[in-house]
Amino acid sequence: MSKQAVLERRRDERIAREHAERARETHTRRLWRLGAVAAAAAVLVAGAIAVSSSGGARPAPPATNSSLLAGIPENHGVLGDPKAPVTVTEYVDLQCPVCARAAESTLPALIRDEVRAGKVKLDVRTLSFLGPDSVRAARVAAGADRQGRLWAFLEAFYARQGGENSGYVTDDFLREVSKAAGVDASLALGQADSTFASSRLERADADAARMNVQGTPTLTVKRGNGPERVLKASPLDAAAVQAELDREAAR
Amino acid sequence: MRAAAIGVALAGLGIATYLTVVHYAGGEPVCAVAHGCATVQASDYAVLAGVPVAVLGLVGYLAVLVALARDGEAWRTAAAFLSLAGLGFSAWLTYAEVGVLHAICIWCVGSAICMALLTVLTVGRMLRAGGEPVSV
Q1: List of residues 6+ apart from A207 with CB closer than 8 A
Q2: Tell me: domain A74-250, CATH 3.40.30.10, correct?
Q3: Which residues pair with A89 in a beta bridge?
Q4: How far is CA B2 from the centre of its chain?
Q5: Nearest-angstrom CA–CA distance, B57 and B70
Q6: Which residues from chain A sit within 8 angstroms of residue B48, using beta carbons?
Q7: Most B CBs within 10 Å: which of A150, A191, A202, as the mutation test of the B interface?
Q8: Å from A34 to nearest chain B CA?
Q9: Does A58 touch chain B (CB under 8 A)?
Q10: DSSP 8-state class, residue A119
Q11: Cα(A124)–Cα(A92) distance, rounded to whole angstroms?
Q12: Searching chain B, which residue's CA lies closest to the CA of residue A53?
């Protein structure tokens, strides 16, 4: 092999080595860049998840049609300040006429004096033991819950309550109730057969069994994360309920 | 790879546009899985910091398309970043659907699949782009 040929071969080998080295460097640089991009994306997503989990700055649902509930926050079916120290849970059946009476006689004072003041938050379990109309009503109520307007729905339902199991809980009736409560009727009715609605009914039944609820309405009280107990006061006696809650708050 | 990515981004943009229209029209998405879409759309997870997630998706797909329309290292990196962020958030939303809401929105699943495909394509494009010229 001539000296010229040897020089050319060495030159080609050098070029090939340089090519390979550059390619390696480029690939390594891109992998580092991918790592940085993935890390930045992870930070962005973590921030978004944190906002999403906390409910973020989601605007409050529009004010209810009722002045009683106006301006009171509702989160996952719980009415009032989430930090309120006392939780009152009402076990109801939407067809139950006594529940409708309690909604007129006891709840307004409770909401006006205790919930609005941030001392009590109101939770509810919609049972469905009276019949098929109760089941349908409770399921659509779960749809209203999804829209943050469960309490407005309950109020509007009681105001229009018909005879037990008379078949009055039709889709038209539920649409009318939804409209009065400021609930998107199509969405609420559409969610009646959802797994969410089923889980709400199951939770209500399970909690009622756990608390040995014998009839509706039944009120229970819980301070912080303490044990839940059934109120001794009649749900129809606003003054007695108020007095018992005052004693609970003073404990 | 670029053409495929643009096609997938357009499909995702179509889904996000549909969900945005449904959101503002106040209707219920056509859903093969009984009422799952309505449940998801009415949930807390449908809105992030006051902005509907459907709108975020729409903006995200548009941004990916803009990045794909340009060439160069920076734009390829931008497309990969947007796709990775979109995939991460889609994964979170899918978890929320299955683990929290117990409802599946078929449109959201479709968007998540689009984001997964986009991530594969844009990351592949970023890593496999032609190397810099080598001097001799």
Answers
A1: A89, A91, A125, A213
A2: yes
A3: A123, A220
A4: 16
A5: 20
A6: 48, 51-52, 56
A7: A191
A8: 8
A9: yes
A10: S
A11: 7
A12: B45
Domain residue ranges in chain A: 1-58, 74-250
Phi, psi of B24 (to 5 degrees): -80, -20
Q: Which residues pair with A86 in a beta bridge?
A: A120, A223
Enumerate the residues of chain B whose CB falls inside 8 A of the CB of residue A186. 26-28
Report the SS3 class of residue A127.
Answer: strand
Q: How confident is the model at residue B101 (pLDDT cuts 50, 70, 90)?
A: low
List, in order, residues 6 or more apart from B66 with CB less than 8 Å away: none
- Number of Cβ within a 10 Å radius of residue B127: 15
- Which SS3 state, helix, strand or coil, does residue A198 take? helix
Give B130's DSSP letter: P
Q: Please tell me the predicted confidence (pLDDT) of residue A72.
A: 92
Q: In chain A, pLDDT over 70 holds for what percent of residues?
A: 94
Summarised one tens digit per residue, pLDDT across range A187-220 is: 999 999 999 999 999 999 999 999 998 888 999 9
d(CA A45, CA A37): 12
Map out the domains of chain B as residue ranges: 2-127
Q: How far is B96 from chain A (nearest CA, A)?
A: 10
CB contact under 8 A, A48 and B44: no
pLDDT digits (tens, 9 = 90+) for A88-112: 999 999 998 889 988 988 999 999 9
- pLDDT confidence of residue A47: 87
Question: Is pLDDT at A63 greater than 50 in this prediction?
Answer: no
The CATH class, in words, for B2-127 is mainly alpha
Using the structure block, give the residue that is written with the tokens 């940085």. Answer: A36
| A109-158 tens-digit pLDDT | 999 999 999 999 999 999 998 889 999 999 999 999 999 999 999 999 99
Task: Identify whether A217 is preceded by a cis peptide bond (ω within 30 of 0).
Answer: yes
